[in-house]
Amino acid sequence: MCKLAGSVIAYFTSAKFLLYLGHALSTWGDRMWHFAVSVFLVELYGNSLLLTAVYGLVVAGSVLLLGALIGDWVDKNSRLKVAQTSLVVQNSSVILCGIILMIIFSFKTQLLTLYHGWLLTLCYILVITIANIANLASTATAITIQRDWIVVVAGEDRSKLADMNATIRRIDQLTNILAPMAVGQIMTFGSPMIGCGFISGWNLMSMCVEYLLLWKVYQKTPTLAHKSAKVEASELKQLNVKKESDMKPTEGVQLIIEKDVTGFEPQQEKEVGCATRIAEPFITFRDGWVAYYNQPVFLAGMGLAFLYMTVLGFDCITTGYAYTQGLSGSVLSLLMGASAVTGIMGTVAFTWLRRKCGLIRTGLISGVAQFACLILCAISVFMPGSPMDLTVSPFADINARLFENEPLPTIASPEPEMIFATGMPNLLNGSIAPANSDPEMSPESVPLISVSLLFTGVIAARVGLWSFDLTVTQLLQENVIESERGIINGVQNSMNYLLDLLHFIMVILAPNPEAFGLLVLISVSFVAMGHIMYFRFAQKSLGKQLFVCHTPDPKAAPDSSPPGTVLHSHICCQTSTLECV
In 145-157, which ranges are continuous DSSP H helix? Predict the structure, then answer.
């Protein structure tokens, strides 16, 4: 009994559990804020979607442009400094945003009369700007914790790394559902102002606890204090260090030294001119994308990014479409719960498949499973009940507003159950009222075959989706060298946001429910292209492994090779005792 109690205590005080706990607190706060800020902006701007659309565009554009710079900053600084700085900036920005929103909600009438409303406009700009800073800090936190710290905490055990990645995703799945529901209840039975105060208070408390947890994890994992950085031969000459003058790396070999060059930074800064400093961010941006392109897992990363170009997910677009087809908010909430369950099943499938088939083949199997399920979505477009009408121009709604001077869409105050179910009002036609609300055609009379097939495919596909996501995540963790983890994952985030931004632009260009079927077919095509890219990556990787073999050490433990050294291991190239590197 004492031994069991000791094991339990040891687990709850381990670096791994403390990392999980910190991530859960951080993710819970993030999900509450991302849900609430969209609703706040809709409420503030006269029930219009304009501020929400501007906020989404600013966030996506910022990560797209600054992802490489954020990653480079992560690489160039110590792990603890990066984690603590991004944590403080993120939570402080959310707290400040909450306070400003509370002031706006309290004095909106007075602000409208001051300076002809320009002061209120300035407050809107300030809220969006600070919220964007919070999102950029959150991106830095995700890169350093989920792409770097977790690799170091797992050590050289790849199976442990896979289990930790899967657990992190399960936490994400649960908080995606529970956090918006919790803050939504507070906002409904209280008020938006109370919601702002609660989120600000939560982030203040969470920041203090997370700061302590990060320090504990850092203390329990001494290897986190050692961070190596790639130093090119030209950079060594600029440093002009006698100690390193006789170290001349051979061509094609990277020189890895400890990240302890702070003593030489002032001397280097003096030698750098003003023009060089101005050009440095642009050079970093270029070098980051070039380095990403040259990675052995480039095609795998691109394949993952292409999965973001889809309307087949539980975001405001798909759930809004379902609402126009007669599904109630309560049904949608149940469907979102089912999607969370299948997402968790995907994380379980990932760990099992990886043990049985290897990491690269897990990605292949997951991709096939996801695409097979999305075929149901493509079929749903042509089934009874589908509103798709190819005779109607996808741009008819935009043309009407541009050339017939129709007013921009506004939304009525959303019903609470709709907010809880979807996290956002309907963005398809500017109203949350179902498209089939004609008294002569009630939702019950509309065939639900099409929408049923659509959501069956979307929910089932999440098993393959999350398993594939974890596969690519671990490939990036294992194959990107330590000194480039930040910048490569920063560029990967930029690619994800780019494709996500394109999917929203696609919906803006074709917002009518009649065009949604066309968007479904385009989405399935992009998913197929993404998996084709991964297939090409797997073909190259497994093909190389057929020729690079060695006799395994019988004393070596499985999955013990350090991440970042080889592409993948434990895939047998023959039936003999040879094993591929």
Answer: 150-154
Q: Which residues pair with 549 in a beta bridge?
A: 580
Length of the chain: 581
Instruction: Let me know: does 32 contact 199? Beta carbons within 8 Å.
Output: yes
Please provide the DSSP assignment of 229-250 as one string.
EE--HHHHHHHT-GGGTT--PP
- In this structure, what are the phi and psi dihedrals at residue 565, rounded to the nearest 5 degrees? -110, -40
Q: What is the largest CA-CA distance in the chain?
A: 87
Question: Of 158, 179, 130, nearest to 24 (Cα)?
Answer: 179
Give the three-state DSSP class for 202: helix
Question: What's the pLDDT band for 253 if we cut at 50, 70, 90?
Answer: very low
Q: Please tell me the distance from the alpha carbon of residue 78 to that of residue 57, in angstroms, as a whole number.
A: 31
Q: Which of 409, 455, 452, 401 is nearest to 432 (CA)?
A: 409
Find the helix packing angle between 158-189 and 449-479, rounded to 10°. 130
Please give the distance of CA 56 from its chain centroid, rounded to a whole number: 14
User: Which residues have a Cβ under 8 Å from the Cβ of 39 and sit 6 or more positions away?
Assistant: 187, 192, 414, 419, 424
Task: Please report, in angstroms and rounded to a whole number, the separation of the first and last CA atoms in the chain.
Answer: 43
pTM for the predicted model, two decimal places: 0.78
What does the pLDDT look like over 73-93, one tens digit per residue?
999 999 999 999 999 999 999
Q: Which amino acid is at 276?
A: T
